[in-house]
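How a chain folds remains the central question behind the approach discussed here. In the encoding step, the backbone of a single protein was reduced to a row of integers, each denoting a local shape. We regard such an encoding as a compact summary of how the chain folds. The sequence in question and its structure tokens are set out directly beneath this paragraph:

___
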Amino acid sequence: MNTTPSGNLFERFLHSQSSSSIILILATLTAVLWANSPWADLYVKLSHLDIGTYFNGKHYHLSLDHWVKDGLMTLFFFVVGLEIKREILIGELSSLKKALLPIMAALGGAVFPALIYFFFNPSGPAASGWGVPMATDIAFALGLLALFSKRAPIGLKVFLTALAIVDDLMAVLVIALFYTDQIHFPALISAVLILALLALVIRNRIRRPICTFLLSFGVWVCVFLSGIHATIAGVLLAMIIPVKATIEPKRFFSILKQHKTWLKGSKVTRRSMVSDKQQLRAIEQIYLAAEQMIPAGIHLEEHLHPIQAFLILPLFALFAAGVTVNADTLAAFPDSISLGILAGLIIGKQVGIFGFSFLAVKSGWTSLPAGVSWGQLWGVSLLGGIGFTMSIFISELAFTESTMIANAKIAIFIASILAGISGYLTLHNTLPKK
């Protein structure tokens, strides 16, 4: 296993995904049990609790579940955006040869489920749900793969990670382009202008956290008012965060050597550095240079990932997964929506991911990752059918009727469970026993 810092970062990423998937399951079970308990009214009231402010004669407010879905989930999409940018610039998507296999796999894993869903729902209000089975939940998929520990080759883990990130990118584009009813252009132009101003602040390294926060919040508000889903603001903000060092290593070492030599000669102590302005200035220059060597995107991704994995996604699951299962719900299940989602996630995902990967390799465009067999790739293709978080998110954008949303969520739960079990069993039989 790679022991470099980047290798350690990837291992921490995998560990956090597997750990957070457990918390996500607990939050989902809590939501379902709560919504079907004697305290179901409290669950509904809490979800619809209005939170906002009164300004200039107008009320600005959202319900608690919308603050989670439109507000906190923006931070989730911000981390997703950082992951996408990192992989494109310096990761597994940074060269065509490395990127082609996960890109083809993700493309197949998006097209086939959408076509299968469209087969069941060619017209009417239900047709808008074609984006639901396109998504893969990276936390659950990687969490299940992590259960095999060292039995799973690193190439398989990297492939699934890159596949899920490309899948997230397509999901973001689908939300922005197809689940936006009407665009309010003045608000959208304002968002672009504020984003450009924020990019200048970051580029010139203006150290004013309150300024950065207010500008970021301004982008979110303008995107929210534009009609585009507010979470897209998170991806836009991530795109202006650098994922490479903003200073050349030669320049960094030059500054370090210069000030280090001078500080040694000046006999710096903890007491002298407080009173001697030159010593303090030299130490500050070393600190600033070191800060520029740490990529802001990598730093933010590493520190925000636990927040989005262990707080934001569980809160989203708590407010989004609470489906009330009663006689009325069961009477309408399964319908064309649920059948399209079930078939799309269980059949469409594995056929699309495995089929497009097979074509890409056999055509000579790319090759399988080192140590990865076709059986293992099929197991990962099955794991791609775990839609869960992103599928639930898209289902609430695609449908307005409560019955449609309930049927979609039940289908997502069933499909994700079946895909997870079948993927786990396939990998258990195809991975090395030791």
